[in-house]
Amino acid sequence: MGVLGAFRETMTGRSAPQAPEDVAKLLDGCVIEACAELGLREADIYCGGQIVTMFLTPDHAWEAVIVGPDAYQLYPGFISSDGGSISWPNVWVADNYSLAKFVDALEDAFKEAAAAA
Q: Contact, 89 vs 61, CB < 8 A?
């Protein structure tokens, strides 16, 4: 099971949250736990509405948008070379990620951040 196994398990269970805001709160808690597990001590995680913003390291930023319990969008943050600003490409042009694809993609981002930390 990957670092977001608890999120995947809860979301495939009978009592999985359905409202995007509730899914975001669950993801927020699971991401914070994953950061601790991977030793990402500098991580800053923010949850607001249906969006979870994750600064896993100073160079690894991600934003998850929860559309529904099986519909997700995941954006990388592009940090300027001086670290003073960040740009989010907020135009989603693909089909929403399924739960499985979303968790796999986010776990890959965690692996990359942990390797660089």
A: no
Note whether 83 and 58 are within 8 A (CB): yes
Tokens of 22: 């509730």
In this prediction the pTM is 0.93
E strands along the chain, which residues? 44-48, 51-57, 60-68, 71-79, 86-87
Mean of per-residue pLDDT scores for the chain: 93
Q: Which amino acid is at 87?
A: S
Residues 6+ apart with CB under 8 A from 31: 4, 45, 52, 54
Token pair recorded at residue 46: 């923010």
Residue 97 structure tokens: 């990620």
Contact between 36 and 26 under an 8 Å Cβ cutoff? The reply is: no
* Interatomic CA distance for residues 77 and 48, integer angstroms: 17
- The span from the CA of 55 to the CA of 13, in Å, is 28
